[in-house]
Amino acid sequence: MRLELKGLTKKFGSFTADDDIDLVVEPGQIHAVLGENGAGKSTLMNMLYGILTPTSGEILIDGEPVAFGGPGDAIAAGIGMVHQHFKLVGPFSVADNVQLGREHATAGVLSAKAARKAVLDVSEEYGLKLDPDAICEDLPVGVQQRVEIVKALSGPKTQLLILDEPTAVLTPAEITELLQIMRNLAAAGTSILFISHKLKEVQAVADTITVIRRGKVVAELEPTASEAEMASAMVGRAVTLQVDKSPAEPGEARLEVQDLTVVSDAGVKVVDGLGLTVRSGEIVGLAGVEGNGQTELARSILGLIKPDSGTIAIDGKDVHGTSPAARIHDGLGYIPEDRGRDGVISEFSVAENLVLNQYRNAPFSKRGAVNASAVRKQAADSIAEFDIRTQSPDEPVSSLSGGNAQKVIIAREFSRPRRFLVAAQPTRGVDVGATEFIHSRLVAERDTGTGVLLISSELDEIYALADRIAVIYNGRIVGEVAPDTPREVIGRLMVGADIAPVQEPAPVEDDAGESSTDEPSAAADDAAANDEEANGGDR
Question: Could you tell me which residues belong to the region Disordered (predicted)?
Fold first, then answer.
């Protein structure tokens, strides 16, 4: 399929989301569309998929103009879409989700066998590995995304697949797998529109790149373009991709976790005797494959779940039995990994979400009632400072892009006094310009004496920001290392490989009877050399 967009424009009242967009996708091509949060990428894809009607312009397939009255028309024309926010019914099986809207039936009776076969056929054709009987809500996020891809590919022959921010919630391993799936699809002749703001992924998989900024096409690039070139085109200015920070000056303990244990409803120890300390003036990065207890640790610190044993102290105060509100009042900040569940109330306005954890406090509360003027002023200040792309402070958060919803949370947490901050996946779904800003603010927090626990599945982010790295595996801290530790060492810890600890030289008594330490032996030197050689000399 050859897709061409000519002068495609979408207006919402006086606001122009997309302005005169021209775009061509050739058969079997992976065409990446880069842009900041709120640049108009998702609006453009929703027009192409029939969810939105263009204000003006044309969509042409193989040279013929088409008009879609809804997604059904787009599907019939051979277009499939995997949305940024999945459209799965959690309690349904994989097969049930895939056949929704295109049910396999004989004489009005649904055929479970035919639905299962459809899943298995598409899975086998594209190497997607799915169990048609698995319940979707029980599947990891990366597998749920595979369900969405199979769903998009299992209707009428899909010739163009739209992937809207498909890697926003995936682990690094899942991202690598998805990029390979995309290559397989393109090699089989499927055209792909890959909507993203992740530069390395675009470089790795795209055949050509279109950059959109504030609703306009501003550049056409080759994947050989540097990250700096792509970032500059996206943001409209030079972007610093390296974090500039001075050495940390840790002080007193802000967070002390001792022997923490959390048992899941299924009776599994998801946090298992974990111990961790974070001091003022330092960023401790928690590295690990998602699902190893990070979520439960963060929610325990905030007070959203009650640990089965162990203690959590903030600024030396045991917080056992205190509510999340009390902990927030005492200076705990929290950027949750799941913004939809824990970060925002999507039906509330941007302004209301910006004071969710402060509306009882002055100046937002006045004689027991909400002070609307103070709330609006806070919203106006935060929208300007954090570049939240919204038409109005009164707009519901549900209407924002995922990245802009994340900015609402970041703005809320950084706009009040804090002594300790848990930042879980703080830049997930956020564009390169906003990532630069968030990273600089986290470093600034550290430099004012705040203790920061950074939980991230992005190892690049851990390396860029952390002053000390703690590695979590199976609910335990299995190692604490310096930020210059080679990736292969941290990678082995993350998957539970048995890495022998460095042995300290035995103390030797000197003539005065005091203990001292010998210089490292030749054998230790040889062991270090062998380790370096095994790791490719990457020290």
Answer: 501-539
